[in-house]
Amino acid sequence: MTSMKPKKTRAAVALGIVFVLFLIVASIVSIYKRDEFIPDFSPKSWPKDEILNPGLLVNNIVSEHRPVPYAYNRLPFCVDKRESVKGELLGSYLLGNRLEKSKYDIRMLNGTSCSLLCNKEIAAKRLKKLIFFIHNEYKAQWQLDDLPSAYRVDTEDGYHYDTRWKLGDYIVNKDNTFGDTTLNNHVAIKIYYHLHVDELQQTDQPEYGIVFFEVQPMSIDYKGQYKEDICLSGEQGTQDPLVLNIEGKQNVVYSYSVSWIEDKNTSHSNRWNRYYIGQGNPGRNWFAVINSMLVALFLSLMVAVIITKTLKKDLIILSETDDDEFDEIAWKLVHGDVFRPPRLRILLSSGVGIGVQVNFMTIFAVICSVLGFVSPGHKGEFLTIMLIVFVWMGIVGGYASGRIFKIMGGINWKKNVIVTAILYPGVIFAIVFLLNLFFWSKKSSGAIPFGTLFACIALWFCISLPLSFIGGNYAQKKDVSRNPTDINSIPKFIPEQVWYMRPIPAILIGGSIPFGAIFIEIYYILTSIWHQQEYLFFGFVFIIFLIYIVACIEVSIFMTYFQLCAEDYNWWWRSFLIGACSGFYFFCFSIFHILTRLSLPGFLSVFLYLGYSLIIGIIFGLMAGAITFTSSYIFVKRIYAEIKSE
Hints:
By secondary structure, this protein is an alpha+beta fold.
């Protein structure tokens, strides 16, 4: 039976390596063949003249200068009755997306040169609010058949499509005061379609599918009354723009046009190609990968030197020399204290447990994105997957926490499970709730509804917590292997350390190395999130995440070895905090991003941005802390197992 275990272990390792290589290949393919990795399980189609259902949907208005979104239909636009779209994902509500139906009449292949949407009289108070949104460059987001509206932006290098478009424009005078403010009250809609072929459904009437959705906002001054000739000349750019009145009420005419363009070269499976034009350069992301690989290679060389030369030489001496003659080996001198349980062990074990849970969640979600199970057309889908996986991974977090707690000599395992399932998630929930209060105070559509918060709490306490108890109970019943060395009754005196090996400097130095391996890609991700754009390169995320795991493992071994050589046996908390310090660096990098790349007016904008950065930093730190702690524990246990029992 004993001979079978190594074979099974080698087979499991081989299968794991093959699976990781497959995912790496899939990641590279997804980078350059992104359109083929977007699922289209049920493409929609309509016959000619049929009303598109649910039609043209409107989402929040957002701004790059203010993190507070607002509902599109709460502005003085053409709305008879606000009607939300049913069946939105949980993650969509958490992200603040609020899809609502609009008054635009869209029928398959039924175009119109110019149509009146409504004639609306805007009161002075609402007019000032609209001007405020235009001055802060708020943009609208539309959606049709799960495709976002595409607004063409011409640049010196070509052009790209933005999924948002400005509500209007304004002039800034030389004295930095605002001049005329114009409103985009007309939208030219271009819908590209193709003939839909369904072999399973034979019908006499042909049906068509949508492959692209483009909008061109315009400002047309109708002089208070709609006229088709004014609309037509406005589309040609020969009509004066609509200037908003800064004093008193104003009558505004809203209009639109719809044109249908056949596109035989685009199918439903690759209809996202146009959205990728100019929206990201794989070359710059490969630069981030190369940077990460160089850092990981440097760490690999350092660890290789430690293991193949220094540590291997020490182990040879230990195996060939009597116990009284190898006290000059520094890390051996603390063999009687190296497994001494740390203080606040329940906080450490719970942090490691929840970190393992978050790592499993992240790996699963990124793999789903790489393999094409997450569509950019469904906002909130990625976050929904992460939440669901996190909840069900409670059993893994409970087991990991319980296992570490028992290894450190903990007794009250039930208390440990409760702390694991509630403490760190509770801190994040408290921050989210606090930020939500500010959204509520501003009547922002980004505020999470009470029903959604209640659903998250129900998933937390009704599924995740019980699963954590199941995992913790299993860890408690399962025996743990005995530590290689016994613990002395009297703690050994720790000599004074050089400045860079003291706890705080060592943690800061150690934590900076893994973060330095990935900070370039983090910058790209932060930019995409802040600009309300879909991040397109999940393949890069997976590759860099693997490199990051390797960097965390190597830096934890490196720092723990030198700590033990300095006769400092308090490695438990330090090994965890070295990884967790990456979250601190992420938060600092977010502050740097504000100061150098963003222009946030007012305290509220900065507070909200830093609040969400703090949440990501905590999650990031827990992930890295679990990796570095586990690596250090395996390393310490392995080297001290070579010491002969006395």
